[in-house]
Amino acid sequence: MLVFLLGLIVVLALLGGVHWYVWRRLVRDVTARGSAARRVGTVAAFALPLLSFAALVSSRAGAPFWLQQTVAWPGYLWLALLLYVTLALAVGEAVRPLLRRWLERRPANPGPAATPGGGAPVSVPPALDGLPPAPAGLDAAVAAGTAPAGRTAVAGADSVPPHGDTLTEPTPSGPQTGTDTGLATAGATAGLTATGSDAGLATAGGEGDTARTAAGGTHTGAEAGTDARTGTGTHADVEPGTDARTGTGTHADVDARMDAGTAGASALSRRLFVSRVVGGAAAAAAVGTVGYGTYGVLRGPRVKRVTVPLAKVPRAAHGYRIAVVSDIHLGPVLGRAHTQRIVDAINATQPDLIAVVGDLVDGTVENLGTAAEPLARLRARHGSFFVTGNHEYFSGADAWVDHVRELGLRPLRNERVEIGAGFDLAGVDDIAGEREGQGPDFARALGDRDRAKATVLLAHQPVVVHDAVRHGVDLQLSGHTHGGQLWPGNYLAELANPTVAGLERYGDTQLYVSRGAGAWGPPVRVGAPSDITLVELASKQT
């Protein structure tokens, strides 16, 4: 009990960590704090795992069948989506730094434009970019100090408005000596003016763009937008790096601050862009994978054909066809329509014998009896046979054995029958029945047979193949593994089963494992398509 509890704690902690990671990458990193998208994503991060838990336990807890059906679809599908979105995000972790590095190395915007005075180049702010130049001769007049009194030089304007029609900056009374330069603050528009002996330096975004002057000389401010004057036409607070006499309007300190802010904003923007690209790609990959895998299950299984040569099979049985179907898994997701598709596919092969090798259902006869009814329409020359799987013991094995018998299938419960074609067909209960005092009994099923005749054994789980070898079985037909169902689940299935899918030999016994016709849990298969196998026996005596 203690081991079980510790294992449960580890599993819950792992699931909690995975959900936090997915929420972080798909919600927190790509949405704004307090936004509706973040609230919805956070609610989903709590609600979906609760639905998955409800889907897993509702059947065994005896919940009403309508409730099982309600929670099964979203709960089980989320488990599949969680698997593939986590795998995709993990791959994205390797892509993130590469994408950020590529963005950082992209060519910058076009270089800054040079100032009219030949000073240091400055950037053209977006607000002023594209405005027409000042009229011809204005710059010269301004530089010479001969602009008419009361007339205003407007930065970026294409003409000088008439006297009295412009906004002017009040000039101090009395003569002004020296030269005076002002700095217009970031965000100044083209309509800001400088009059008299003041020169306006317009800056947008701290880039130091030069405005046209209305009088000669320069004046440099320590901060963008500062017009502190000393009375002598100089500025007392010129900081290192400020070009206070060239008239170019450069300011190293302001530029450094604004560049740092711009760099920070750019880095933040790049991180958001990368998070959204990687997160969106991961979500799209997961949805596409799960969507295609769901379509494969709901479409129904495809028929595979496998030829198995057996030394003891007589010539009369050469070409004998056995339709093998396993793991149908009728339940709250897959119902009567699923059964009908399987029956139609089997009957279309015109088999000589039909073998249903376990895990027919995930629920009680009361809830799923009608879903299994199409099995009564199975048609084969030598009949249809059934053995229990582990899921029958979760759903009332004895009741289901009685029900399939009513539908015309013959259960083989540790027993053997002789097939007229010249071989024996045996079947054993699943090992999960051992908890109920049942389970496989090979001595009972195979003990007194004629070993000169070939024997085909129906056993749900491949792991009993070693018992089959000891009892001289020629061919064992099994299911249980689903082929892994959801890649990379096949690697886990290999740890617990001698064969995950297909035909393999163990001593003198051949083992064939079907991937199954349905799906357990999520109605999704990835890398392990569902199948019905038509096994054709080949006699070596021909």
Strand order of the largest sheet: 5-16-6-7-8-9
By helix and strand content, what is the structural category?
alpha/beta
**Total beta strands:** 16
| Overall 3D form | elongated
Distance between the termini: 58 Å
Indicate the radius of gyration in whole angstroms: 41 Å
Strand content: 5-15%
TL;DR of this structure?
The protein has three domains: 2-106 and 271-287, no CATH class; 120-249, no CATH class; 301-539, Metallo-dependent phosphatases (Purple Acid Phosphatase, chain A, domain 2).
List the helices and strands and how they pair.
Blueprint: H1 2-26, H2 36-58, H3 65-104, H4 138-144, E1 153-154, E2 180-184, E3 193-194, E4 198-202, H5 252-299, E5 302-310, E6 320-325, H6 336-348, E7 353-357, H7 365-372, E8 384-387, H8 392-395, H9 397-406, E9 410-411, E10 415-419, E11 423-427, H10 442-446, E12 455-458, H11 465-470, E13 475-478, H12 489-496, E14 502-506, E15 509-513, E16 531-539
Parallel strand pairs: 2-4, 5-16, 6-7, 7-8, 8-9, 11-12, 12-13, 13-15
Antiparallel strand pairs: 1-3, 6-16, 10-11, 14-15
Helix pairs in contact: 1-2, 1-3, 2-3, 3-5, 6-7
Report on this model:
- With 542 residues, the protein is of the alpha/beta class.
- 36% of the residues lie in helices and 14% in strands.
- The chain has a six-stranded mixed beta sheet. Strands 10-11-12-13-15-14 form a six-stranded mixed beta sheet. It has a two-stranded antiparallel sheet with strand order 1-3.
- Helix 1 crosses helix 3, helix 2 packs across helix 3 (65-104) and helix 6 runs parallel beside helix 7.
